[in-house]
Amino acid sequence: MEKTFAMVKPDGVKRGLIGEILKRYENKGLNLVAAKVISPSLDLLQKHYEEHKDKPFYDDLIRYMSSGPVFAMILEGDNAVKMVRLLNGPTKIEDAQPGTIRGDFCTNTTFNIVHGSDSVESAKREILLWFPEYMNKI
Ligand code: GTP
Ligand code: MG
């Protein structure tokens, strides 16, 4: 079964939206395999967002992601990678329709409340980064 990595970002945790967001993933048919509340280190965030290190929004992104604990998850199901990203909604907030998590709860592209891996390969990399204890299980 396909697995993906998803995360409720610091503003989602602060706003008490973990349950609401997890309910949407579970309602869709995805199963929670592992989860934890974690205050990510700078090193972990830099590795997670390595592909964006030269982008103009990178410093704001790292500052935002360092602003409090996140809720990190491994989810499993048919097309899990794609399903989580459909439920999350598009990156650009002006494109995020009501009905998606970003469309329903965000007004700003930086403070966009959720993360989902963008491919099966990214999911493997991110699961090992955030859940190294799963090393032998995926
Ligand atoms: P993630 O699931 O968080 O990886 O989002 P994504 O895959 O939809 O977007 P992407 O990986 O391209 O960007 C990572 C994060 O950087 C986004 O979630 C945003 O928080 C931020 N970001 C991306 N593009 C922009 C942008 O054009 N402007 C701003 N301000 N932030 C951006
Ligand atoms: Mg991404």
TrEMBL record:
Subcellular location as annotated: Cytoplasm
User: What general EC class does the enzyme of this chain belong to?
Assistant: transferase
Q: Which GO terms describe its biological process?
A: CTP biosynthetic process; GTP biosynthetic process; UTP biosynthetic process
Any one Gene Ontology MF annotation carried by this entry is: nucleoside diphosphate kinase activity
Q: Name one Pfam family in it.
A: NDK
Q: Known catalysed reaction(s)?
A: a 2'-deoxyribonucleoside 5'-diphosphate + ATP = a 2'-deoxyribonucleoside 5'-triphosphate + ADP; a ribonucleoside 5'-diphosphate + ATP = a ribonucleoside 5'-triphosphate + ADP; dZDP + ATP = dZTP + ADP
Q: Per its UniProt record, what InterPro entries does this chain match?
A: NDK-like_dom, NDK-like_dom_sf, Nucleoside_diP_kinase, Nucleoside_diP_kinase_AS
Give all residue intervals belonging to the Nucleoside diphosphate kinase-like domain.
1-137
Q: What is its EC number?
A: 2.7.4.6
Lineage: superkingdom: Bacteria
Q: What function does this protein fulfil? A: (Microbial infection) Catalyzes the phosphorylation of dZDP to dZTP, when the bacterium is infected by a phage that produces the substrate for the synthesis of dZTP (2- amino-2'-deoxyadenosine 5'-triphosphate), which is then used by the phage as a DNA polymerase substrate.
Complex formation: Homotetramer.
Entry's NCBIfam families? PRK00668.1
Under what name is this protein listed?
Answer: Nucleoside diphosphate kinase
Q: Specify the species.
A: Thermoanaerobacterium thermosaccharolyticum (strain ATCC 7956 / DSM 571 / NCIMB 9385 / NCA 3814 / NCTC 13789 / WDCM 00135 / 2032) (Clostridium thermosaccharolyticum)
